[in-house]
Amino acid sequence: MISMPVTFVFILITAMMRGVGDTVTPLLALTVSTIVGLAVTPALIRGWFGLPMLGVASAAVASTVSGLFTLAWLHFHLRRRRHPLAFDAAFLHAMRPNAALLRTVLRLGIPTAIGMVVVSLAELVLLGLVNGFGSHATAAYGAVNQVISYVQFPAISIAISVSIFGAQAIGRGNSGQVGVIVRTGLEMNLILTGGLVALGYLFSRPLMGLFIVDPAVLELAQELLHITLWSMVLFGMATVFSGAMRAGGTVWMPLLISMVAITLVEVPVAIVLSRTIGIKGVWIAYPVTFATMFVLQMAYYGLVWRKRAVERLI
What is the pLDDT averaged over residues 236-254? Predict the structure, then answer.
């Protein structure tokens, strides 16, 4: 439980850094956190250096330790660089409630939180469908999701960058530049996400072999990966459009589009196809959903949002 507020503070600070154009420091902080976590976890599992052997609790304790260590590292790193967000007297003095700003943050943040809840609930439904096909299907599901999560990293990062640069352009009164930012984000998705997708297809068997040793499960996981992997490019492009609109304060419509795609497309398609063609039907639902999301987000962005006057939020 202690790790949750630590993680929240870490996410908040790194988000502010990205907001002021510093993307390198969050990357360094994440690297520090990962290295510490990888070192502390086995040490607690095996009781190295006289540490207690905590068993399954090791990961949770290691997460807390790495989080606290990373926050301490951030403090000294920012102070040394005289970063605008360093925890000095001026920073602490400026940390006072601002009702107008708080309302804006809540107006933008609550829809995002609702979207995350909907995604999590939908994943629980899909996992329930997968579990119905036995342990092999569940093992394949976990392995494929691991690979997909890595492929999604650049797509999500590009969407965050589009949102940040879009907000900065709008804030300085140059909303016409948002189109260029979106186009750049789409091109980067084709190159980076598309490149990872291509590598995933070329090396799908070795990748699955990192997580699976059973030949039957390995064959199933590879087949499921082939079904859904290409759609990560569509996912990335959809998030570029939604990220650009959120930069201008439009949050409810991108959320509504995502909720429609998940609740009215992904879950029903997965249920129907899983009963007709088996486990593959669950995975076909992902490309169908991402294609729907891409078309709807692009249509709303191009036909509605771009024709509006976009102004800075504060």
Answer: 89
